Amino acid sequence: MKWLVESVIKHLNKVLPPNIVYAPIKANVLDVGTNDAPRKSIALRIIPSAPGEQYFEGETIKKNFQILVKSPDGLEAMSSVEAIAEELHNLHRRSFHSVDTSYKLITMEKYVEPNWVDKTEANEQIYTALFTTELEKGG
Predict the structure, then answer these.
(1) Which top-level group of life is the source organism from (predicted)?
(2) Where are the alpha helices (DSSP H) in the chain?
(3) Is the Cβ–Cβ distance between 103 and 134 less than 8 Å?
(4) Rounded percentage of the chain residues whose pLDDT exceeds 90
(5) Over the stretch 52-95, which tens digit does the pLDDT of each residue have?
(6) 69 Cβ partners below 8 Å, 6+ apart?
(7) What is the CATH number of the domain that holds 25?
(8) Which residue, among 133, 122, 117, has the nearest Cα to 43 in the 3D structure?
(9) What residue numbers bound the domain in which 115 lies?
């Protein structure tokens, strides 16, 4: 869902400092580094989720997404994903800087805590956290 990806990216870029969002946040994939040139990278991707709820006058949309962060400095990657997870968890209780009012954010919660994923061949550390959202069309 393009709206969710663009809105979360906009929100994170607006509220978090450059030492946390240390690379442009991209949709779906992390940048690939090499042994000679490891690359810092942050990605957001939509992942499988259950359907939303049906109501008499409409329905909600459920979307899950994953944040991935990568850095040759494992502590930097870990700090970044933890700060991002803290910002996004229960975001529906604060101001959400969305791209427009096509949807209304009902809930946004982390459902998998930040965790280490892998070390790449270029010695980059990857961390992730998973989130679930519920949206209403035409917020």
Answers:
(1) Bacteria
(2) 2-15, 74-88
(3) no
(4) 78
(5) 777 777 778 999 999 999 999 999 999 999 999 999 999 999 99
(6) 41, 42, 43, 77, 80, 81, 84, 126, 127, 128
(7) 3.30.2000.30
(8) 117
(9) 2-137
The strand pairing partners of 130, in sequence order, are 66, 112
Q: Measured between alpha carbons, how far is 135 from 129 in angstroms, rounded to an integer?
A: 20
Q: What is the mean pLDDT of the chain?
A: 93
H-run or E-run covering 129: strand 125-137
- Return the structure tokens found at 30: 């992390």
The first and second tokens of residue 9, run together, are: 């990216």
Beta-sheet pairing, 25-27 with 41-47: parallel
The one-letter amino acid at 16: L
Nearest of 98, 99, 91, 94 to residue 133 by alpha carbon: 91
Domain count for the chain: 1
Q: Give the model's pLDDT for residue 139.
A: 58
**How far, in Å, are 2, 8, 103, 118, 136 from residue 5 at the CA level?**
5, 5, 12, 23, 16
DSSP type of residue 101: S
**Is 73 within 8 Å of 48 (Cβ atoms)?**
no
